Amino acid sequence: MTLSKCFRLAFSSILSSKMRAFLTMLGIIIGIMAVIVLTSLMNGVTTQINDMFASMGTNTITVQITARGGSRQIRPKDMYAFIDEHPDLFSGISPSVGAMVNVRTANDSEVTRTRISGVSEQLAEIRLMDIEEGRFLHYIDIAEMQKVCVIGSYTSRKFFGMTSPVGQVLKINGIPYTVVGLLEESAESAEGSSDDAIYIPYTNAMKIAGNASVSNYTLAAATDDMVTEAMDVLKKYLRGVLGSNDFFNVSAMQELLSTFNTIMGTLSTVLVVIAGISLLVGGIGIMNIMLVSVTERTKEIGIRKSLGARRRDILMQFVIEAGVLSGIGGVIGIFVGIGCAALAGSLMDLTAVPTFSGVALAFSVSVGIGIAFGYLPAKKAAGLNPIDALRFE
Predict the structure, then answer these.
(1) Which of 222, 243, 274 is where one domain is finished?
(2) Fewer Cβ close by (within 10 Å): the C or N end of the chain?
C-alpha cells in the first residue's frame, strides 16, 4: 500500500469521528501551546534584560575598594594614572561617590531628602547616557569643583514641572547648583529609577560626603572582547597596591549578564519540561484511542489481510494515522500558542515572539510522540490473525 493511500485512510478515519479526534488531540494541543507560550515569554524576558544591560554598557567594570589605612590606599589620581598606562585595555573611568542630601529649588522652602551621585565627565560615555537638553559634566567642572549638576527626567518633573530645568538652580544642602543638563528618559520617569538622579562632580560629592578617598569606580574596557583581560590586569594592580584580594571587589556587567542568561536558560528548560509532561499525557490519549480504533476496526483489518494486505501495510496505516492525528494537534497547538504568547506578551509589556526553532521542535515532538505512542496499537493491529479478525463481533 502506498503512502498516499495511508494518508487518505488516516484523514478519512479522523473526519469520520471529528469530536473524538479533537478530544484525542486536546492533550497535544495544550502541551504544544504551553511549550510555545513559555518559551516565547522566557525569550521576551531575556531579550528585555539583555537590552537593559546593553543600555548600561556591556563593557563596564565596577570596582569597590575597602578602606585601608597607611600608604596602602588608592586615590582617584592613582586610578587615572593606571588607566593612562593601559589605553589599549580601557577607554574611560569615573569615580563614584554617593551621598544623601537635602534638595530644594531656589524659590521653594520644601526640602526633599534624596541621593546624589558624584561622577566624572566620562560616565555619560561609559554608561551610554543620552542628553535630552543641555550638556553633561565637563572636565573643568570636576577640576574646579564647579557648582553644576545634571538631572534625570523624574527629578526634573519633581522640582520644575514641565518647564525646562537647564539654567535653573537646585539647592543641595543649601548650596546652589546650576542645572546644566537633562538626561533622556530611560525608565518612564519612575521614582527610584535611573531617571530619579542628580549627578554632580565627584570632587564636590567627596566634600559633601566628608570622604577623603573614593571607594567606588566605574571603568569601561576598550571593547567587549577585552573585558576579561582588562579585569585581570586591574585585579593584579589592585592586589599589588592593597596587598590582598580581600580589600577590593571587581565585577563586570558581562559576568552578570552571563550569569543571568545561564539562570534563565536553566529556568526555561525546567518550565519546558514541565509543560512537556502534558505532551506525554496527550500521547497516552492517542495510544488509548488508537487501541479502541483497532478493536472497532478488527473486521476491516481481517478483510484487508484476507485480500493480501501485508503485516507492514497494516502497521504503516495505523502508525501514519497516529502521526497525522498528533501532527494536526501540533499545528493547532502552534497557532493557539502563538496567539496566546502574543496576548500574554502584550499584557506583560514584553515582546514575546516564538522562535522558528522552538516551533519546529514543538511540531516535531508532537508528531514523534504520536508515532511513538501509536506504534503499540499499530503492532497489535498488524499482528491480528485474519481468520480471528473476520470472526470478531
Answers:
(1) 222
(2) C
Tell me if 181 sits within 8 A of 135, measured CB to CB: yes
Taking residue 3's Cβ as centre, other Cβ atoms within 10 Å add up to 9
| Cell numbers found for residue 247 | 580589600
Provide the residue type at 270 as one letter.
V
Q: Identity (one letter) of the amino acid at 144?
A: E
Residues of the chain with pLDDT under 70: 1-3, 6, 55, 67-71, 296-298, 301, 305, 307-309, 384-393
**Burial class for 382, CB neighbours closer than 10 Å (0-12, 13-18, 19+):** buried
User: Which residue range forms the structural domain that includes residue 101?
Assistant: 90-222
Phi then psi for residue 369, to 5 deg, are -65, -40
Helix and strand totals (H; E) in the chain: 13, 10
Give a yes or no: residue 73 inside a domain: no
User: How many whole angstroms separate alpha carbon 82 and alpha carbon 54?
Assistant: 26
| Widest Cα–Cα separation across the chain | 105
The two beta strands, 90-105 and 216-221, are antiparallel
- Which is nearest to 363 in space by CA: 35, 125, 63, 74? 35
Answer yes or no: is 342 within a domain: yes
What is the residue whose three cell numbers read 485480500?
A: 307
Residue ending a domain, choose from 173, 195, 222: 222
